Amino acid sequence: MNQHPYLRAYMAGIVFPSAFMLVVLTVFCIVRFGLKEPAPIEQIIVFPMAILPNAFGAWNMLFLKLHEHWRVPIGLHGAALPLFLGPIGATFAIAVGFLRITERGLQYFGIFTIPYWYLPLAPFLAIAAYYLIWKYIVGSLNKLLGIPC
Amino acid sequence: MKPENHDEEEIRAALKRAFAEPDTELRRDLWPAMLQRLETSALSVPWYDWALASCVAAALIFFPRIVLFLAYHL
Predict the structure, then answer these.
(1) A72 touches chain B (CB under 8 A)
(2) Which of A4, A75, B11, B31 could form a disulfide with A135 if both were Cys (CB 3.0 to 4.6 A apart)?
(3) A149 assigned to some structural domain
């Protein structure tokens, strides 16, 4: 059990987002093909599906590395992840034209618009959600795989 | 006694000499230790985490459009 700790940390990290993305993809497919909504699934889902599980795995490996020197609680470590993911997602979306800045707010894929007053609220929600996910889900998976946390 | 039976007896005796009889009896009752482990592993969620989860759930209910925003960026 003491072998390959970083591989185990990566595996413990990717479990939750991989399973969660299947749920998200199922919902998107129901909306797109069941309800015939004109949502471009493949464009919406590409960033979360490609980046999120790997980001969780790499962030958990970083937690294991930092844990040797600095014993930060895993919840706080996970709460810092959206501070990186949010700007990366926005940069990606603007670069490929998925996100446009309009007078009414941020327009995604030309379909849904997020008012600007949502923007101060979103980071707090993301940080709170990530804190809980990392503390209770990723933390328990780490314990299961013998990773100190 | 046939020679092959003789060999088998010898092999059996040699194996018994080589390997000690396994200790199959329990030395103590394991159930109390199991109960203790179940009690210690029970997840205890502090009040501030419940409050935080409630705030997140309330925000997602009152501002449902933010789910799309978070689903894409996170």
Answers:
(1) no
(2) A75
(3) no
